[in-house]
Design brief:
It comes from Brassica carinata. This is Reverse transcriptase zinc-binding domain-containing protein. There is one protein chain. This protein is α/β, with parallel strands linked by helices. The protein is 45% helix and 10% strand. The protein contains 17 helices and seven strands. Strands 1-6-5-2-3-4-7 form a seven-stranded mixed beta sheet. Strand 3 and strand 4 form a beta hairpin. Helix 13 runs parallel beside helix 15. The longest helix is centred in the N-terminal third of the chain and has 21 residues. The structure holds zinc ion. The site of zinc ion (ZN) has 6 residues, from loops.
Length: 429
């Protein structure tokens, strides 16, 4: 959805910038479809067509309310958005920020912490100094040490709490470094990760330490219970080490009850296993979602495929989990014993791995767990969009073509024959 008014996208590269609306109207005063189709792609033509035109005088229209009239509320929302965009622009124009952001995606740590680092660099952590740039008038002093303005670099490096945390690991910033900016400090600490003069246990834990400092600050501010900083830092160092060990181990082939990393092409299951790729096509909470699965053997031959329409799900995760429950039930009924479930929906795979972290979905996760217990072995694999294409197409066809009847069939759907064949051929390549 567009947030505001914009030009339609043009079909041709060279466009007449002085073109007026009147030139797109026919002699009857209505839109001239042929002219529109000549200049704009189909979706834009549809949008333009929805605009009412007629024999009325020109006037200014406020584009940010459904009725086209100005309201104070919509004006305020627009003004705050512009202010926020301005702040982001200033942050983004700082020298070196792009390089640092690019570097963050390669930092050896878990995605959650990479995401946190990204937010720190983007000025998107909710410290009081940042909140005030959004028009909140808060006392900007750090609540922990009460001695300085609470900026992101203060929280992560300069606050007494942060200094304590860094000195527990033996990596505290020197007094001469205390004037450095957030970008300089982050750069310096991320560089330290590959500095071989620093003991490996310490330097590999740097992202985890930053995350711990941030979590601890939030705990001090908002939580009733507190955990000793020393223990938290020890845990962070252990976690970093464990993660490092797990990630430098040799990759194992498809494992039972394990999780595999993403792959580009469709990977076949081990002999005697079947692999079942699933997909739920969720668009919004008001529409049905299309669900599908396709079961293939180690050579890529389709054994079964099925499609169904589910009633409304409030969000994508629910739609995918319902799809998984339905799939497991069906696979059980079909008598499969050793299965690998492939989904490109990362959250599903995460939720199954750590059900305690997904309390909202515990009902589904419990059901899934019970079903899994009925098979000899079940493994879950994360697919990429490209390796999960066929079941995606089938699920999409439910909404796109209005195929609401459910069905289960032997073999694959004829209209996707070519793609199934291609996946099968890729196995040997
Ligand atoms: Zn402080």
């Amino acid at each position: 959805m567009d947030n505001g008014p914009r030009r339609p996208i043009n079909k041709q590269r060279d466009t007449d910038v002085n073109l007026r609306v009147a030139a797109l109207m026919g002699s009857n005063g209505q839109w001239d479809v042929n002219k529109l189709q000549l200049l704009f792609p189909e979706n834009e033509v549809t949008r333009i067509f929805q605009m009412q035109i007629g024999d009325v005088a020109d006037r200014d229209i406020w584009a940010y309310t459904p009725q086209g009239a100005y309201t104070v509320k919509s004006g305020y929302v627009l003004a705050s958005k512009m202010k926020e965009a301005e702040a982001v622009r200033i942050m983004e124009s700082a020298p070196g920020i792009l390089e640092l952001k690019r570097h963050i995606w390669t930092v050896p740590t878990i995605p959650k912490i990479r995401n946190f680092l990204w937010r720190a660099v983007s000025g998107a952590l909710a410290v009081t100094e940042r909140l005030n740039t959004r028009g909140l008038d808060l006392d900007t002093r750090c609540k922990v040490c009460k001695s300085a303005v609470e900026t992101i670099e203060h929280v992560l490096f300069k606050c007494t709490m942060a200094q304590d945390a860094w000195s527990i690991v033996g990596l505290q910033p020197l007094p001469s470094q205390m004037h450095l900016s957030l970008l300089e400090l982050l750069n310096m600490y991320l560089q330290k990760m590959s500095d071989e003069t620093v003991p490996v246990l310490q330097r590999q834990a740097i992202p985890w330490i930053l995350w711990t400092i941030w979590k601890n600050r939030n705990m001090l501010l908002y939580a009733d219970t507190q955990e000793s900083l020393i223990i938290q830092i020890q845990k962070a160092v252990e976690e970093a080490n464990l993660w490092k060990e797990l990630n430098t181990m040799q990759p194992t082939p498809t494992t039972v009850n394990g999780l595999n990393e993403e792959t580009k092409k469709w990977d076949p299951p081990l002999p005697s296993y079947v692999k079942c790729n699933i997909h739920a096509n969720w668009r919004n909470a008001k529409l049905h979602s299309g669900v599908s699965f396709i079961v293939r053997d180690q050579s890529g031959n389709v054994l079964h495929h099925a499609r169904d329409a589910n009633t409304f799900s409030p969000n994508r995760a629910t739609a995918e989990l319902r799809c998984l429950v339905w799939t497991l039930q069906s696979l059980k009924d079909l008598g499969y014993q050793d299965v690998v479930i492939g989904s490109h929906f990362r959250e599903i795979v995460e939720a199954i791995k750590k059900p305690l972290e997904w309390p909202l979905f515990r009902m589904f996760l419990q059901k899934i767990n019970t079903f899994c217990g009925m098979f000899r072995s079940v493994a879950f694999e994360l697919e990429t969009v490209s390796s999960n294409q066929i079941e995606r197409e089938i699920a999409k066809s439910v909404l796109r073509d209005g195929r609401f009847q459910s069905y289960l069939a032997l073999g694959g759907p004829a209209w996707l024959h070519q793609r199934i064949l291609r996946d099968a051929l890729l196995i040997s390549s």
